[in-house]
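Record type: ASSEMBLY
Status: queued
Input:
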Amino acid sequence: MKIILVAGARPNFMKIAPIIQAIKKHNRQHQTSIRWQLVHTGQHYDDEMSKIFFKDLEIPEPDIYLGVDSGTHSQQTARVMVEFEKVLFREKPDLVIVVGDVNSTLAAALAAAKLHIRLAHVEAGLRSYDRRMPEEINRVLTDALSDYLFTHSPDADKNLKKEGISKGKIFFVGNVMIDTLLKLKTKSQKSKILRKLNLRREAYALLTLHRPSNVDHKENFLKILKALKEISKRIPIIFPVHPRTRRNIKRFKLNKFFKNISLIEPLGYLDFLKLMISSKFAMTDSGGMQEETTVLNIPCLTLRDTTERPITTREGTNILVGNDTVKIIKEAEKILDGKRKKGVYPALWDGNAASRIISVLKGVRSQHLTKF
Ligand code: UD1
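Status: finished
Output:
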C-alpha cells in the first residue's frame, strides 16, 4: 500500500507527526510495509511557522514541497490543487491522508477525489456551524469527499451522521494532536523559554489571536484589546504573534494597546508547550489550544462565539467569551480570584489515536483502495 500524507500549515504538523510515527512503528513490526511520502504544500513557509515544527516534532524532511505560498483563498486552494494533481499522476498512491481544516486540506482532498483516489480525513466531523469561517467550509467539503473519516469525539460522529455520511466510513479513534502533546510533554520541560522571557510559573497569561474575524476587523480587534488592557493590569500577558496579526496591528495602528502585553515572535512547538503548561490561563481563538488546555487542565478563554470543539467546553476547561469586552474581563477575573473551571479528560485522548488509524487502514488491501 502506498500512502501520501499532506501537510501545509502550522496546525497540520502536530497532527501528521504521530501518523508518520505510527506508520514507521507498523513497518518495524510487520512484514508487509506501508510505503508513504510526505507532501508539504508550502501554505506556511516562514521558518517559525513551519521549519521549526519539523525539527521539534521530529518529522522527516518532506519528500515533495509544492511551494504554493500565500494568496487569496481561491488562489491558494487552486495552486495546491494544480501542483498536487501532478504529484498524484506521478506517484499513483492508493490513499491520500489529509488532516485538519486548512485550505491545503480541502485542496488536496479535491485533487485526490477527482482522480478517484481513496481519501482519509483525520479530525473529521468538527463543525462550528459558522460558514463565515473558511475552516468550516473546508471541513464540510473535505468530509463529503472522504472515504475514511477519523473522528476525535462522539460529537463529531453525530455531526457526520446528520449530514448523511454512512456509519461504515466513520471511525472514532481519538485525538492525534494529543498524541503529540503527550509524547513531547516531558521533553518540553527542558525548554528555556521561561528563563529567556524572565517569567515565573503561573505568573502570566498566554494569548494567541489570529482568526480573520478577530484581527481583520478593527472594531472587533479593539473590543478584545480593551479587555486585554484591563486584564494586563493584574497579570502580565505573553503574546506570540501570528504574521497576519502583526500586519494588522501595524495597519490599524494599535501599538499603544500593547504596553503591558509582551509581543514575541511565533514559537516552536516545545517552547510554546512549556509556555502553555506553565501559564495561569490561556486566551485564544485557536482550535488546537482549546483541546491542549483541556488535556493540560489549564483554564482557557476562547475569544470566539462558537466552537467546533464543544467537548472542550462541556468536559474540559474551555469557556467561550467571544469578543465581548465585559465577558472577557469577568471570566479572567474569576480565574485570577481562584474561581477557575475544572474539567475532565475526554475519552480516547490518550496518545494512541494514530495507531488506531493505522490499524484501520492496514486492514484495507491496496487493490480495494485504488478506484481508477
Ligand atoms: C491558516 C489556517 C487556519 C489556521 C492558521 C494557523 C486556512 C483557511 N487557515 O490561517 O485555520 O488556524 O493557518 O496559523 O487555511 N504568512 C506569513 N508566513 C507564513 C504564512 C503566512 O507571513 O509562513 C502571512 C501571509 O501574509 C498570509 C497570512 O499570514 O497572507 C495568512 O496566512 P494563511 O495561510 O492564508 O492563513 P492563516 O491566517 O495562517
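Annotation: The domain at 2-175+348-362 is CATH 3.40.50.2000 (Rossmann fold).
Annotation: The radius of gyration is 20 Å.
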